[in-house]
Amino acid sequence: MKKIVSIVAALAMATAMFADPVANVAVVEFTGNAKVTWGVNLDDNKTGFLNETETHMTLQLFENGTKATEGEGVWGEIVVTSDNYSDPQRFRDNDGMRNITPRVDKALLHIGPAWVGILSGDTQVGDMTPVVAVKGSNSWQDTTDVNGRNMKIYNVGKNATQGITIGFQADNIVKVEADIRSNKNADGSKYSDVYATAIQADLLAVPNLTFSVGVAHNLTVGKKSTENSLNDDAFFAKAAYELAINDTFYVKPQAAMSLETPAWEGVAKDSKKINATAAVLFGWNKNENQSWSGVNYLNQWDGAISGDRIKTSNGASVALHVVSQSATDDDNWAFGKTAGDLMIGAFDAGTLVPGLTFGANFEIYDFIYSGKMEDKDGKDMIAETAKALDVSREEYVRLGHYAKKSLVAEAKYSIAVGEGTVAPKAGFGMTDKFVKTTDKGLEEYKFDFNKCFFGVELSGFVPYTTFEVMYDNADLDTTKGTLDVSCKISL
Length: 491
Fold this sequence. Notes:
Blueprint: H1 2-14, E1 23-41, E2 46-62, E3 65-68, E4 74-82, E5 103-111, E6 114-117, E7 125-128, E8 153-156, E9 162-170, E10 174-182, E11 195-203, E12 209-218, E13 233-241, E14 243-244, E15 249-260, E16 272-284, E17 315-328, E18 334-349, E19 356-374, H2 381-388, H3 393-397, E20 405-413, E21 415-417, E22 420-437, E23 443-459, E24 465-473, E25 482-490
Antiparallel strand pairs: 1-2, 1-25, 3-4, 4-5, 5-6, 6-9, 7-8, 9-10, 10-11, 11-12, 12-13, 13-15, 14-15, 15-16, 16-17, 17-18, 18-19, 19-20, 20-22, 21-22, 22-23, 23-24, 24-25
């Protein structure tokens, strides 16, 4: 407690130098719960209890504030901001006080309608995650993964961080920004001779329309080092339009694509990568940041920033993601691969039918798949190999890349009963399961059930207490699953 008091005192003195934020210590949130679960493993009939407790306290140490300069013509603008500080982490050891230093959000030299930004940034363009009803079964995606289940298009182009941004905005018609930047040297100094630039234009004139185009270029190509010979050029474009049908329903088509020149599978010569995504969302009661489905299988974290989720919305959607890569090696052999995933989903967080949360997602991985391997004379070596194995070229290309399907569906329905609530919930999953390899080396799969759960929650009948009975089986082929009975008391 002495440590907290001393920190608060220090903050109170600090506010004298930064007048707008005000020290204001308050308990924002204080919660806790204790839970005991008894369960049976139906495979070996072993049983047992599990006790769990959790506490959470959030303190507000000072109120937010912003100081900024103002001017006209040619002038310097700086915006310094301090947020309402609260620590979302549990208080343990010395892990409690973080990010309390005010930050510089903006530093611009204004020259009429144009400006020069002097904060660090990047020289990449892109980054778009389509808004869909349900995110994919792969809740995270490596930037090099062809099979990007979340349909996201990542930033492209060589990244340099140190430098300036030159910007211009013509009323609410168009906004253009150009970055000219370098990277630090290996010793941490700014003298690296590694430069890159990027230009992005955003159309602002049409309401509900998002349209952006960006180009990035490596200015240090002439150095011819391995690092500088990659990501020489990149292009990105995205468009999205939201059309309201009435106060409840809307349609949102979206598309994005990027083109870059990265090394691929160790081959850098003439290397290029095209990444494209397209989606259509038929949405209702707009909620494009649904972070939790309320049931099991659709509740996934996207693996990016803590607490961040892939966008999810009340509605039904169809999305397609296609990646195509190609390169030529030093012997002038040409290689290439194209893959695409299809995703169809639906989700509603109790808006169409009060109390009913449901979701379903159907995916076909490698919905599109093709390969290319040609010798220096242009002969199709894939076709030659397939012929020797007495299979079609398409079958041979598909070897190991069967268009696997996945279906997940689940629901939870909360029913008011007297002073309490009874909420049954259930869900299942189906996937393509490997069956066998044929005498020609081709794989065969069977679309079948692989997991399920069902149970019921009872809350409100005993103050601060929730009871639950849950059966869960994540692998119907090999296990009998688990049956748990729990009691949770929450403050």
